[in-house]
Every structure is written in C-alpha cells, then in structure tokens.
Design goal:
The protein has 324 residues and is α+β, with helices and mostly antiparallel strands. It has 8 helices and 18 strands. The strands form 5 sheets. Strands 4-5-9-10-13-16-17-18 form an 8-stranded antiparallel beta sheet, covered by helices on one side. A 3-stranded antiparallel beta sheet has the order 1-11-12, with no helix packed on it. The longest helix is centred in the N-terminal third of the chain and has 22 residues. It starts with a strand and ends in a 9-residue tail after the last strand.
Length: 324
C-alpha cells in the first residue's frame, strides 16, 4: 500500500496566520515504515506525543505480527489456540470475522496457508495438476467462520489453520495512534503506516491534507490527489509483491477462487477510520471493480477509486468531494 504525502505548516488563529511548528518522525514498524507528523506549540509536546503514539503501534505489532515468535498472532498460528489474548488481538480477530460476514467472505484473514504455499517459491515450478492438488489441500483451511473467539481464548477449528492480519492491523494501529495523539492535545496530525493513512483534523489553518495516489503504470505521475480532513485512506495494489516470475500471483488472495485476485490492479478506499479503510481496500480489490463499487456505494461512510486490469477507472458517487 503506497501513497505520496504532501503537507503544509500554518495554523489559523483569530483573524491572522501564525506559524505552528511541524514535527515528524519515521520508524521501521509492522514490516514497513511508519511516519507520524504533528503540529504542536513546542518541540517537547510534539515529540512526546509522537513517541507515545509510536509506543502504541509497537504494542499492537507485538500482538498482531505473524513473524515475531514472541507475538500473540505468531503463537496462535503455531499452536492453533491462544489463551488469555490481549484486547487488541481479540478486537482484530472479532472485527475480521465481522468484515468476513459483511463482505460475503471476500475479507478473510485465514488465507495465510495459501500465502505460505506460494511464498515458499516452489509451487509455480510444479505442473498445473500438482499445483491444484496442493491448493485444494490449503483451501480446506480457509474460512474465518472456522475461528472460535471467546473473551479468554481464540482457537482454530482445523489443524493447520493460520491467520494474517496484514489487511487490518496497520489501519487499526494508525487509528489507535491518532487516539493517543488526540489525548495529548494534538489537533492536527497524520499517521502513515506503509500507506495506511489516518489524519486528525485538517492541517493548521483549515486546509485539508493532500494525498496523491500513485499511478501503478507511471509512479512519477499521481492517479489522483485526495483532500482529507479527519478521515483515513488506504490503497491496495498488486504491483509491488509477486510470488511468481510472470507476476501472475501476488499477495492479495481471492478466498472464493483460492488464487490471486486479478480483476483490479489498484483499489483506494476513503473511510471514517483506518480499520475500515484498510479492510475495504483489500475486500473490494478481491471482489473486483463492479462488486467492489457496489459494496462501497451501499455504505454511508466510504468512497473508493478502483482501477481494473484493463486500466478502466471506477469512482464511487461521493469521491468527487475529496478530489483536488
């Protein structure tokens, strides 16, 4: 998920403009880079708020990572169950199940066995018959309805199931970071975790934050520029992570087919919060442009810009409010 950020540095006070300092930090987190930008009266309050927000992101990563052997999600995948999960992991898995139902199964955190299969780097060398046989085995482990969730335990119904929270955790973490910033008195901020962007208010002075969506065919030219205040935006695309040399298999799986979703090359979603933007971007990408657009249009709090494999652009009816 990749977006280009452009921001300014002035605040309106009374009937005149005055400079409000901008502070920014970048850290490697959640398998990507996270940046936090705030406008604050002084360096101490600005940097302290940023550091507190980063601490919240780090805490979420320690629960949601499937690569860190000490993380809760890693242990859940390893053992097939987790007793006394944190509130964060409970929320992430419960919300994921809810989005699984709302999207008719297109948003599914249990596709990790398929990602493991392709990510090992050998499947594409197999004959089509062997490929399909192995995919059929992995497909039996797919389905978020196979996750049992109680207040003190998360468990899988089938041995070998695994989850991935890559399509929800960054948006959730960006949201949580904004809550921390707001609690520290920050009124203007942007949190960007690998392209999952959530903003607090407008920029100082009332100007919206301007975010350029990368054109997957020409990264030097933006596909569109989005203006945001107090919203979130996420882009899912198939142009960065491929599992095969012919670039036909990528990291966004269609749980209905057990193969990569290939009707879209880019899906950008604007929503009220980062969690929804993150999950919807993946969902509509997997669904394809027509079904994805229909889903977004049915929601009151989301807009989208989709590009299909033939480079046809689809825009939701309310997207024009954010363009420019």
């Amino acid at each position: 998920m990749f977006l280009v950020i452009m921001c300014g540095s002035f605040a309106f006070a009374g009937n005149f403009f005055k400079t409000l300092p901008k502070f920014e930090k970048i850290r490697p987190l959640m398998g990507t880079f996270a940046s936090i930008t705030v406008y604050a009266p002084d360096e101490e309050s600005g940097i302290d708020a940023i550091d507190a927000a980063f601490s919240r992101i780090e805490a979420i990563e320690s629960r949601a990572s499937i690569f860190d052997e000490n993380a809760e999600a890693f242990r859940l995948n390893r053992d097939g169950y987790l007793n006394n999960p944190s509130d964060d992991l409970l929320k992430l898995t419960a919300m994921s199940q809810n989005y699984y139902r709302q999207t008719d199964g297109y948003f599914d955190i249990t596709v990790q066995p398929l990602l493991d299969l392709w990510g090992a780097g050998e499947l594409w060398k197999e004959s089509p018959e062997i490929q399909q046989e192995k995919i059929n085995v992995a497909a039996k482990l797919i389905g978020s309805d196979k996750i049992n969730i109680t207040q003190d335990r998360i468990s899988f119904m089938a041995e070998g199931m695994k989850i991935t929270l890559g399509a929800i955790a960054k948006g959730y973490a960006a949201n949580e970071a904004l809550h921390i910033l707001e609690s520290r008195g920050i009124e203007h901020a942007m949190v960007d975790i690998g392209g999952d962007i959530s903003v607090l208010g407008p920029k100082p002075g009332g100007e919206p934050w301007h975010i350029a969506i990368i054109n997957p065919d020409d990264t030097s030219q933006p596909l569109a520029t989005i203006s945001l205040s107090g919203k979130s935006i996420t882009t899912s695309g198939n142009y960065q992570r491929y599992f095969t040399l012919d670039k036909k298999v990528h990291h966004i799986m269609n749980p209905k087919t057990d193969y990569s979703a290939n009707e879209c090359i880019s899906a950008t979603v604007i929503a009220e919060d980062g969690t929804l933007a993150d999950t919807l971007a993946t969902s509509v990408f997997a669904m394809g442009p027509e079904a994805g657009l229909e889903l977004v249009e049915a929601l009151d709090n989301a807009e989208c810009l989709l590009v299909n494999a033939d480079r046809v652009v689809y825009k939701s009816s309310g997207l024009s409010d954010y363009l420019g």
